[in-house]
Amino acid sequence: MTRPANAELGKVTFQEECASCHAAGDGFDLAAFSFPDTTIIRRALGHVDMSTSLDIVAHIRRIWVPETRGVESSPFQPGGLRLGTDYEFAINTFGADQWPADLTSEDLRRIDMWRTEVAVKFPVWSIEENNLDWMPDVPVPEHLLSYRNGRARNALDKFYRGRSVVLLRRAVDALSDGDKDRNNPNAPCIMDPISQLRAKECFEARRWAASLGAQFMLRYRRDAPLHHDVHDVWWDVGNVARRTVTSSAVRGDIDNGLDNWVSWMWMGWAFEPNAHASIYLSLGLKRKEMLRHATFHILKSQVERGRNSSTPYRDLRNVPRFSPDTWLMNAMEFGYNHLLERLEDGERPTGDGLARAISETERAYRDAANRLTANQAKVLVVLRDQVLEYLYLR
Ligand code: HEC
């Protein structure tokens, strides 16, 4: 004899048996990604008995979701569509395989990352065959929850009760501080020296923290960026993946290193386009032969930077390292003109930034020079020297 399903019991069981991996705590993902009852039961039976599985189903069916999606869908994929190629991205974004000569800084600032379709495939919610998904394969490690007197566990409990952006940010911060804090003897994400990195564990812990923010956005239909720390951890998933491609000490330690590098970093960056040096993601895009995406990433970052920073100069310096030949002249012109706009507006890199800005301004031209025609070189020399003129002023 089976008893009627009890949703309240299902809720409690979910927290006890499932929430260590399904980070939202209540099974929001199972409702939002339209998993059928049969799938929930099949998966639940790996952890609990039949009548408890039915309790869990009853509980899941009570969860309010604003919008359901298919299992295979990639949440946050801009425009809901992944483009086929780097070339298609150029045509779709600019109407031609060129950096547009008449594009202004304001135009570029207005390009909405949420809607700009890209050929980067964002992670799907859950897939059993590989790791190109949000779902962490293992529970959040106990040592991360308990480090510093249970700071992360407390922050999570508060978040589960309150579910606000402030509480979310505290929970994500507590988890991501613990993952690289040298005072946490088990911290999996210490990268200096790189031999200390436990890449797989770090990747899983970061995916766990990342999936917390993702579910918050889906639950409350938030498509504007949340606090940047919440998106930083998305970028950081990509960063540990990057190290498993570039650092011999941990090479190959997670599967699909390059795809995870590029997709997580792009996704994190799309929500905080001023936050990271443009070299890291560009190097991954280059390995995927996506130089048009890289150039876009670099110059979009440039226009989003804060005032008086030397970072927009570093961005310019990255243009010749990544731009396709046919894009180079327009992209360089754009980058120099953008710096001039900042300078004309009274901006000035501060402290050590000034010397750095001067050397990046010079190096950008030098690195581009051998790929320019004589006339193009002349134009860029004039722009370069106008920028330098401002920077030399005392
Ligand atoms: C040890 C971590 C872990 C625990 C605990 C866990 N799950 Fe999962 N679950 C996963 C992962 C990882 C996936 C994503 C698919 C995959 O990689 O297997 C997943 C996917 C699912 C799916 C989708 C399955 C599919 O076919 O795509 C369902 C439904 C599910 N889990 C239900 C549950 C329920 C119910 C519980 C508790 C009774 C539970 N899980 C406990 C890790 C876990």
What features would you describe in this structure?
The protein has 394 residues and is an all-alpha fold. The chain has three domains: 7-60; 97-102 and 289-394; 114-272, no CATH class. The chain has 17 helices and no strands. Helix 9 (199-219) packs antiparallel against helix 10 and helix 10 packs antiparallel against helix 11 (257-271). The chain is elongated, with a radius of gyration of 24 Å. The chain starts with 6 loop residues before the first helix and ends with a helix. Heme C is lined by residues 17-18, 20-22, 30, 35, 39-40, 43-44, 47-48, 56, 71, 126, 128, 135, 137-139.
Characteristic key phrases:
394 residues; mainly alpha; 3 domains; 17 helices; 59% helix; elongated; binds heme C
Radius of gyration: 24 Å
Largest sheet: none
Shape: elongated
Average predicted confidence as pLDDT: 96
Small molecules bound in the structure, each named once: heme C
Chain oligomer state: single chain
Blueprint of the fold:
Blueprint: H1 7-17, H2 28-32, H3 37-44, H4 50-60, H5 86-94, H6 105-110, H7 142-162, H8 165-178, H9 199-219, H10 228-246, H11 257-271, H12 279-287, H13 291-304, H14 311-322, H15 325-344, H16 353-369, H17 374-392
Helix pairs in contact: 1-4, 3-4, 7-8, 8-9, 9-10, 10-11, 11-12, 12-13, 13-14, 13-15, 14-15, 14-16, 15-17, 16-17
The structure holds heme C (HEC).
